[in-house]
Design brief:
- InterPro entries: TMEM64, VTT_dom.
- It is a multi-pass membrane protein.
- This is TVP38/TMEM64 family membrane protein.
- With 189 residues, this protein is mostly helical.
- It has one domain (2-187).
- The protein is built from nine helices and no strands.
- The protein has helices at residues 2-23, 30-38, 43-57, 63-101, 103-109, 112-119, 125-137, 143-151, 157-187.
- The mean pLDDT is 83.
Length: 189
Amino acid sequence: MILQILTWLGIIAMCVLGYYLYKQGYLTDMPKLRLLVGKAGVWAPLLFMLLQLIQIILPVLPGGVTTLAGVVIFGPFWGFVWNYLSICVGSILAFHIAKIYGRPVLRLLFSPKTIAAYEKKTSSDTQFAKYFAIAIFFPFAPDDFLCYLAGTTSMTYKQFIWIILLGKPASILIYSLGLTTLFSKFFGF
């Protein structure tokens, strides 16, 4: 319940921020947006990565919002790099948190409906590892939840990290390119 309220507040905040940025011309003028971000200097990528990490650990914002922001603000190459690094680190942290705290963390962060929908996938460790690897490869899977769920299984850190490191690049590229294409059609970038 608390996470749902935070999620809605996060979505509302993003809409208000998006509206403000749009009205100020930052979403219709790429050089102006990059100049705004550039004011943070070398801290800009670190601040972005911190936002991305928080978004994974406390999934109150849709991940696509920050993924798109990375590509739009930093360009396709550096946007991908900052997204990849922060998403991998955030995913590993989510897995680690679940390893430490177990199922109670799932109940704290996710709805019973979400947990029930995926819980049957954890009945077989080998089947879950295969399912997890496939899901991580695709861009529209509930990655944050799946990373936490994986932490409640017998999956090892080594196995998890390899799946994340190898599976994430493709999904981030697909997601980034798809969102960037849609965004460019609406805002002309």
